[in-house]
Amino acid sequence: MGKFVIIPDSSADVPLAIRERFGIPAVVRGTVYRPDGEQMLADVDWDCITPEDYYLSMKGRNILYKTATPPVGEIMEVYEPFLKEGIDILSISLSSALSGTVQCCKTVAKDLLKKYPERKIICIDSLRYASAETLLISKGYEMQSKGASIEETAEYLDTIKHCIHQMGPLDDLFFCVKTGRISNLKALFGTLVGVNSLGDFSAGGLPAVVGKAKGTKSAIEATVGYVKRLIVNPEEQILFVSHSNREKNAELLAERLREEIKPKDIIINHISMSCGASTGPGLCAVYFIGNPVSDDHSIEQNALSEALKELKNTR
User: What is the CATH number of the domain that holds 10?
Assistant: First the structure.
């Protein structure tokens, strides 16, 4: 059975501790443009700026960071050393609904396989972002550790990705709207003082608002109720809680999930620099595995509605 590595892009939340835990040897880094126009590759370890400073710089909404797909040379530089060593590559990229990264990786893979025809490169469109990608990587690592082939692992991930959910409050949708990640109509939720938008993924890989809650505490409790209704086999799951400068909210959410869901483990992450440019400050979300996301979000909307109703009745 051929040896292979799992290589994500920088839209996943994969600082060093995560890479070491889940056997990630390298990351394809996308381009980030600073407000002054300076171009850099995304810093997955936050060496050039702390996440706190990065998100605080956006606080007045006057500072915008822009992102672009990884340069072809960057993808080549990451992939080729493994191919030279006789190692195949399973690439996991940001949702194609949000970026052209997966197509860039496929183009580079096609060129490299002409040079290394005996090797394999499989490129997966995660249809997810941030720690949802990281969760997908962790599942790939599980398969890899059990001795699954690159094809078996890719087939499994292509199935399980549709079952990865996101839920948690985003207290300001300005950046999502500004970068075209969500509709202006839905952004009305994020313009009301004290109102937190609560969203999951769409079947097509976009973020989608499925409800709202008044106040952070209510939003977090509604999030826990939502997870309780949709999660499968929680005792076997590693949950990922990610945030963009909302550390206290993330810690509270993780604490409540441990109390109510009792998962195998919870990992708290900062939202990556690449995804953070679109979310801006204010997101705190948990990523977990449930049943496949419904096409019309009816199941998800019903679950959140029930969670909010239960919360109201307990007051």
Answer: 3.40.50.10170
Cα–Cα dist 172/65, whole Å: 16
Concatenating the DSSP letter of every residue in 67-116 gives EEPPPHHHHHHHHHHHHHTT-EEEEEE--TTT-SHHHHHHHHHHHHHHH-
CA distances from 171 to 55, 146, 202, 284 (A): 14, 41, 20, 9
Token digits for 198?
């609560």
CA angle 39, 15, 53 (to 5 degrees): 55
Q: Domain total for the chain?
A: 2
Both 157 and 173 in one domain: the answer is no
Q: What is the pLDDT of residues 172-219, one digit of tens each?
A: 666 555 555 554 444 444 444 467 888 899 999 988 888 888 888 999
| Parent domain of 207 | 163-313
Distance, CA of 247 to CA of 239 (rounded, Å): 16
